[in-house]
């Protein structure tokens, strides 16, 4: 295309496209900027409404509340640990499983696929699940963050679908060279799957990072297992509690602790604090699925 | 067009091996020890964590009380299901759930795919990456924040949407968006798009990277213009993942969620806003009736599994990629 | 929706996950009416003689401290969301040093019912556990009456007047130590946080400080003021608003019971000991018809039924809402914002309106014991005696002061007259949540048994109820207004609370999870939230038709199951509680 003389159409297209994308970016950036502004605005002032992109009454109070208890740093590292470990393990196991069901000749391909896929569509319920975790002695143990969620059917299908688009000849030739399935998977398939692995890694990492419900159910009585999200949830719910509920209603110190921080402002600072660390990861993964691989170079 | 067809990822090789007469299952198993080792332990793990707890479904046929042993539970047969299906409100919430789920699905797919393809056309790498990073930010905001912003934007009391529409002369007086039942589904759909379009596009962007660049070159030689390339190279390149995701999503047709509807809904639009999950929340979980929640879960599972098998069969008949 | 990975294996839990987000706070106010009405005026006469020094009772505590001071850790689950105190918290440290007890507390995050359900299913409990009827029926907690009789003289004295009420209606044992409502000595009600019709102070001032007694008086004041002031601070005036969002539905639903002269019984009114639902009766219709009138005159907030809680507060804090019916604590944040902007004239005074002057208002009620709340001791507790002795030791006035006021000289001062007060700096400190995590034991104190009213030295049991602290917080405009009415405090606008009926309040009745009564309760509130806005926003001549639809919708609901459950419990209370 470059070789041709400059035509009007590409210019018009690229300009329109760039503008459309910019418009999209503006409307999707707004809620985040708004949250950021609210998080730096005094709680009682935010209540009046009308905070858009910039704080009106500047304060760091909403963030100070997050660090006040001193538990947040330990919880942060627990979150990092569970996220990294889960992502690595989950990626390995899920992609390995995906490889086997991508092999058309595999005798158990269909039953394995069906058994895994169906897990997306039912929910046994919380109570039997709790018993299982208890029987496995995972309660109040770090492994409860890692072990139960390693395989996701959704992610497996995504990886499998990607693997099926790879040129079959690659595998055939590896087999001819005498490579077994495991070696084919490790040395031929995995390197080619970088874009989809990066995508799935992002899904797993974000899911792990954002999860607090497992802490709530299975590890809530152990402070040293608390995660960042759980600590932030605690803060958020306690701010809602102190502002609205029976504590005030029952005449316990009506003058105390309203006003300075409100649930709305805490929610904003908590949201920013919770998502910033994971947002930082994104650009590192992004290069794999925005620009991709030059598949041509490995083609047969 | 013809050359593009030929250049598609060579499925033909696989198809060829499939037609060769197969040795017996046991013989093939012997050659697949590694495949079995790589998958069956993981399968056992999944069965343990996902299937074993299904004994909990017995709750749907009980009047479950958490403190009692299994043997002491009171068995009530199909009572919970009867409560579910006999309530006049249930048909209504079923309709709302399917409608909103369908709207979200269609809007979600179309916007994410279009966004991914258009973003792919951006040549400036920095611009492209910046736009993409920004677009997925709202995914990290909770629904309570997003619905708060939506409610404020739609307010008759200086909300940006009404202000804009009035300035542009489309309307003379502000519209009460959130108290008009017929707008509710659309507002929920638009909110979903706003929050998730960037996130949903990630998977398609990854798929686009797997398209062989030589296909574009071939198309160019054939004289295809930009739009033809999008239509005949990019789109077919991501077709398999689109179809697989579509089949999976059809299975989730009864999962319209409840948070956004709970947070945006109100008494005035309740006949259009309530979903199955809200119904179950109110009459099940909030009043400690776990049995009703379980019964609703079983109902949803039956519908889901029926639908995905149906969708899978249809995909098979049309020769498309299959989920199963 | 294509690639949402939340829908994977773990995603199965997403329903409950986000649900708990959405309804955080519900658990405290399950009955909609909230328990905000507890700030009664008078002291409890039953406790009049409890005013004498508590030395006699302290002997038991002193004995215990010398006998077994060996350090012990007591685990506790607290059913309200709180932040964990810092590791070096001053108050907890003092408790540890002096009583040998380390508290290992877990606080609620998410939904209480969910948490308890799982806890019960798993069968593991901490030593101290937050109250819930479920825990009794599942045998998770042990009876306390013998322990208290034997080891806890201070607790026994604190609860003496309520002993019968604390007995469980199913088996007659005492399982819980209520955390609020046990009054000792004189109780000074100054601020009012309960239900009322609220009106801006500016309106009263402009009209020459009238006292609206009926709904008509009230709406007339609003009409007149709105006509004169179509905008406030440049924005359109809102005559009247209400709220029906999430669990905060009482601003819309509870007004009729008060207008007919009944106290806050939640969803029922009780006449002659018999409870009946009022929401679909003519007594309610009169009120909503009046709102319909306001609506058609353009005085009712158009967005009232659509707005969320944040929007409601935002509107109030702009100062352009002339009036509403609500419980004070529910909109207090909005009012605080007005105060911080110096808009004192746009803050509110509450009036106890009735339909006509022949009806006596009953908004203000006396404190009621907070049954089915507070701590119980679980069956897993290794040393219940040590635990009850610990709680008893904390009931000593010395520790009560430590928990409520803090340390003398640090958190409060003692005047020459012996009265406690806080300096402005100390008061400011109390507003800093970060400081409080290191210097107060609020989380535990909130759930623990406590003295309320006043200590033996006459000081109020909390800074908020110390009269001088209250008067110091009044603004000049407030003083002017109170003087104009000849009142000293905000509660003086209300008829003093009569003695509570023995069965009061009906909203404390446990409807029993999953019963027909609790299903009916949900269905009724669904119907009200659906039809009442329609009725209020209808054209004047269509109001009756919509109202009829509403009444018909109620006919389809098993209202009787709900009423029967409440009446059964009220009768039980009359029989078992009257004895004391």
Automatic annotation (TrEMBL), chain A:
<dbReference type="InterPro" id="IPR000515">
    <property type="entry name" value="MetI-like"/>
</dbReference>
<keyword id="KW-1133">Transmembrane helix</keyword>
<dbReference type="InterPro" id="IPR035906">
    <property type="entry name" value="MetI-like_sf"/>
</dbReference>
<keyword id="KW-1003">Cell membrane</keyword>
<feature type="transmembrane region" description="Helical">
    <location>
        <begin position="143"/>
        <end position="163"/>
    </location>
</feature>
<keyword id="KW-0812">Transmembrane</keyword>
<feature type="transmembrane region" description="Helical">
    <location>
        <begin position="184"/>
        <end position="206"/>
    </location>
</feature>
<comment type="similarity">
    <text>Belongs to the binding-protein-dependent transport system permease family.</text>
</comment>
<keyword id="KW-0472">Membrane</keyword>
<dbReference type="Pfam" id="PF00528">
    <property type="entry name" value="BPD_transp_1"/>
</dbReference>
<keyword id="KW-0813">Transport</keyword>
<feature type="transmembrane region" description="Helical">
    <location>
        <begin position="12"/>
        <end position="33"/>
    </location>
</feature>
<feature type="transmembrane region" description="Helical">
    <location>
        <begin position="111"/>
        <end position="131"/>
    </location>
</feature>
<feature type="transmembrane region" description="Helical">
    <location>
        <begin position="264"/>
        <end position="285"/>
    </location>
</feature>
<protein>
    <submittedName>
        <fullName>ABC transporter permease subunit</fullName>
    </submittedName>
</protein>
From TrEMBL, chain B:
<feature type="transmembrane region" description="Helical">
    <location>
        <begin position="140"/>
        <end position="165"/>
    </location>
</feature>
<dbReference type="Pfam" id="PF00528">
    <property type="entry name" value="BPD_transp_1"/>
</dbReference>
<feature type="domain" description="ABC transmembrane type-1">
    <location>
        <begin position="94"/>
        <end position="311"/>
    </location>
</feature>
<feature type="transmembrane region" description="Helical">
    <location>
        <begin position="231"/>
        <end position="254"/>
    </location>
</feature>
<dbReference type="InterPro" id="IPR035906">
    <property type="entry name" value="MetI-like_sf"/>
</dbReference>
<keyword id="KW-0813">Transport</keyword>
<keyword id="KW-0812">Transmembrane</keyword>
<feature type="transmembrane region" description="Helical">
    <location>
        <begin position="201"/>
        <end position="219"/>
    </location>
</feature>
<comment type="similarity">
    <text>Belongs to the binding-protein-dependent transport system permease family.</text>
</comment>
<dbReference type="InterPro" id="IPR000515">
    <property type="entry name" value="MetI-like"/>
</dbReference>
<keyword id="KW-0472">Membrane</keyword>
<feature type="transmembrane region" description="Helical">
    <location>
        <begin position="35"/>
        <end position="54"/>
    </location>
</feature>
<keyword id="KW-1133">Transmembrane helix</keyword>
<feature type="transmembrane region" description="Helical">
    <location>
        <begin position="290"/>
        <end position="315"/>
    </location>
</feature>
<feature type="transmembrane region" description="Helical">
    <location>
        <begin position="98"/>
        <end position="119"/>
    </location>
</feature>
UniProtKB/TrEMBL annotation, chain C:
<feature type="region of interest" description="Disordered">
    <location>
        <begin position="44"/>
        <end position="65"/>
    </location>
</feature>
<protein>
    <submittedName>
        <fullName>Extracellular solute-binding protein</fullName>
    </submittedName>
</protein>
<feature type="compositionally biased region" description="Low complexity">
    <location>
        <begin position="44"/>
        <end position="62"/>
    </location>
</feature>
<feature type="signal peptide">
    <location>
        <begin position="1"/>
        <end position="29"/>
    </location>
</feature>
<keyword id="KW-0732">Signal</keyword>
<dbReference type="InterPro" id="IPR050490">
    <property type="entry name" value="Bact_solute-bd_prot1"/>
</dbReference>
């Amino acid at each position: 295309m470059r070789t041709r003389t400059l035509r009007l159409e590409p210019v018009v297209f690229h300009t329109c496209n760039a503008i459309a994308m910019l418009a999209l970016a503006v409307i999707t950036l707004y809620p985040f900027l708004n949250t950021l502004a609210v998080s730096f605005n005094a709680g009682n002032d935010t209540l009046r409404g009308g905070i858009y992109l910039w704080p009106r009454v500047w304060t760091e109070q909403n963030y100070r509340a997050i660090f006040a208890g001193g538990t947040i740093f330990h919880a942060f590292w627990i979150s990092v640990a569970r996220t990294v470990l889960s992502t690595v393990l989950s990626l390995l196991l899920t992609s390995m499983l995906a490889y086997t069901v991508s092999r058309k000749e595999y005798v158990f391909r269909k039953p394995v696929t069906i058994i895994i896929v169906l897990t997306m569509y039912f929910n046994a319920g919380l109570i039997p699940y709790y018993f299982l975790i208890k029987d496995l002695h995972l309660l109040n143990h770090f492994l409860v963050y890692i072990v139960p969620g390693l395989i996701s059917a959704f992610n497996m299908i995504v990886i499998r679908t990607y693997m099926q688009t790879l040129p079959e000849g690659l595998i055939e030739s590896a087999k001819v060279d005498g490579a077994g399935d495991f070696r084919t998977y490790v040395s031929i398939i995995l390197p080619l799957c970088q874009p989809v692995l990066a995508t799935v890694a992002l899904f797993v990492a974000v899911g792990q990072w954002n999860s607090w419900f497992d802490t709530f159910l299975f590890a809530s009585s152990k402070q040293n297992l608390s995660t960042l999200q759980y600590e932030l949830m605690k803060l958020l719910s306690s701010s809602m509690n102190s502002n609205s509920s029976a504590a005030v209603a029952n005449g316990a110190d009506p003058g105390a602790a309203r006003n300075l921080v409100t649930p709305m402002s805490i929610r904003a600072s908590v949201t920013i604090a919770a998502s910033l660390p994971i947002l930082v990861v994104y650009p590192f993964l992004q290069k794999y699925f925005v620009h991709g691989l030059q598949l041509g170079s490995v083609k047969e | 067009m013809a050359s593009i067809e030929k250049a598609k990822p060579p499925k033909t090789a696989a198809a060829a091996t499939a037609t060769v007469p197969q040795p017996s299952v046991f013989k093939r198993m012997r050659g697949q020890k590694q495949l079995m080792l790589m998958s069956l332990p993981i399968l056992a793990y999944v069965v343990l964590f996902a299937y074993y707890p299904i004994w909990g479904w017995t709750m749907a046929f009980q009047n479950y009380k958490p403190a009692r042993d299994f043997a002491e539970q009171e068995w009530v047969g199909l009572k919970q299901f009867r409560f579910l299906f006999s309530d006049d409100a249930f048909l209504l919430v079923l309709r709302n759930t399917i409608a909103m789920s369908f709207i979200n699905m269609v809007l979600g797919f179309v916007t994410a795919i279009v966004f991914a393809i258009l973003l792919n056309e951006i040549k400036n790498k920095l611009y492209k990456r910046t736009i993409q990073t920004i677009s997925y930010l709202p995914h990290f905001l909770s629904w309570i924040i997003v619905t708060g912003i939506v409610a404020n934007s739609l307010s008759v009391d200086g909300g940006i949407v009404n202000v804009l529409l009035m300035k542009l002369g489309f309307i003379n007086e502000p519209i009460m968006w959130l108290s008009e039942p017929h707008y509710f589904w659309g507002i929920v759909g638009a909110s979903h798009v706003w929050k998730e379009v960037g996130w949903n596009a990630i998977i398609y962007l990854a798929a686009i990277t797997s398209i062989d660049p030589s296909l574009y070159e071939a198309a160019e030689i054939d004289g295809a213009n930009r739009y033809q390339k999008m239509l005949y190279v990019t789109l077919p390149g991501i077709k398999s993942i689109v179809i697989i995701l579509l089949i999976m999503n059809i299975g989730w047709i009864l999962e319209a969620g409840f948070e956004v509807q709970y947070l945006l809904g109100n008494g005035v639009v309740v006949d259009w806003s309530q979903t199955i999950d809200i119904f179950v929340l109110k009459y099940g979980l909030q009043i400690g009736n776990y049995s009703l929640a379980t019964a609703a879960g079983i109902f949803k599972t039956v519908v889901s599994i029926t639908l995905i098998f149906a969708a899978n069969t249809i995909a098979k008949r049309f020769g498309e990629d299959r989920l199963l | 929706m294509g690639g949402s990975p939340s829908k994977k294996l773990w995603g199965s839990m997403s329903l409950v996950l986000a649900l708990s987000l959405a309804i955080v706070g519900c658990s405290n106010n399950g009955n909609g009416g909230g328990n905000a009405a507890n700030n009664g005026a008078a002291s409890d006469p039953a406790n009049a003689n409890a005013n004498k020094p508590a030395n006699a009772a302290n002997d038991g505590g002193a004995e215990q401290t010398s006998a077994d001071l060996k350090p012990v850790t007591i685990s506790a689950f607290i059913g309200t969301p709180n932040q964990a105190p810092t590791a070096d918290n001053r108050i907890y440290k003092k408790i540890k040093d002096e009583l040998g007890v380390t508290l290992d507390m877990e606080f609620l995050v998410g939904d209480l019912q969910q948490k308890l359900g799982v806890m019960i299913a798993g069968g593991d409990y901490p030593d101290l556990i937050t109250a819930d009827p479920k825990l009794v029926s599942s045998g998770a907690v042990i009876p306390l009456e013998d322990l208290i009789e034997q080891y806890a003289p201070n607790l026994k004295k604190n609860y003496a007047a309520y002993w019968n009420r604390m007995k469980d209606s199913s088996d007659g044992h005492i399982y819980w130590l209520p955390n609020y409502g046990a009054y000792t000595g004189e109780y000074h009600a100054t601020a009012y946080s309960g239900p009322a019709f609220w009106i801006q102070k500016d309106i009263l001032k402009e009209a020459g400080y009238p006292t609206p007694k009926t709904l008509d008086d009230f709406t007339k004041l609003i009409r007149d003021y709105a006509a004169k002031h179509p905008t406030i601070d440049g924005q359109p005036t809102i005559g009247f608003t209400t709220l029906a969002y999430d669990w905060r539905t009482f601003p819309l639903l509870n007004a009729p019971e008060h207008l007919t002269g009944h106290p806050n019984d939640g969803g029922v009114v009780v006449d002659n000991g018999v409870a009946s639902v009022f929401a679909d009766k003519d007594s309610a219709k009169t009120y909503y018809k009046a709102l319909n009138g306001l609506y058609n005159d353009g005085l009712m907030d158009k967005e009232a039924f659509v707005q969320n809680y944040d929007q409601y507060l935002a509107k109030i804090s702009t100062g352009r809402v002339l009036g509403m019916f609500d419980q004070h604590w529910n909109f207090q944040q909005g009012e605080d914002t007005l105060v911080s902007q110096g808009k004192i004239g746009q803050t509110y005074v509450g009036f106890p309106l009735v339909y006509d002057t022949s009806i006596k208002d009953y908004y203000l009620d006396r404190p009621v014991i907070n049954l089915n709340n507070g701590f119980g001791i679980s069956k897993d507790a290794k040393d219940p005696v040590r635990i009850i002795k610990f709680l008893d030791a904390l009931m000593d006035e010395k520790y009560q002061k430590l928990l409520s006021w803090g340390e003398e000289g640090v958190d409060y001062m003692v005047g020459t007259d012996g009265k406690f007060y806080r300096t402005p700096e100390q008061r400011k400190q109390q507003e800093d949540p970060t400081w409080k995590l290191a210097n107060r034991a609020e989380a535990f104190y909130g759930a623990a048994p406590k003295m309320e009213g006043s200590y033996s030295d006459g000081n109020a049991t909390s800074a908020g109820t110390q009269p001088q602290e209250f008067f110091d917080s009044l603004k000049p405009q407030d003083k002017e207004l109170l003087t104009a009415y000849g009142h000293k405090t905000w509660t003086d606008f209300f008829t003093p609370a009569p003695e509570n009926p023995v069965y009061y309040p009906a909203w404390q009745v446990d409807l029993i999870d999953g019963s027909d009564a609790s299903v009916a309760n949900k269905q009724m509130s669904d119907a009200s939230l659906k039809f009442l806005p329609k009725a209020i926003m209808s054209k004047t001549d269509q109001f009756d038709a919509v109202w009829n639809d509403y009444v018909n919708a109620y006919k389809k609901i098993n209202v009787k199951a709900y009423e029967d459950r409440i009446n059964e419990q009220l009768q039980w209370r009359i029989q078992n509680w009257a004895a004391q």
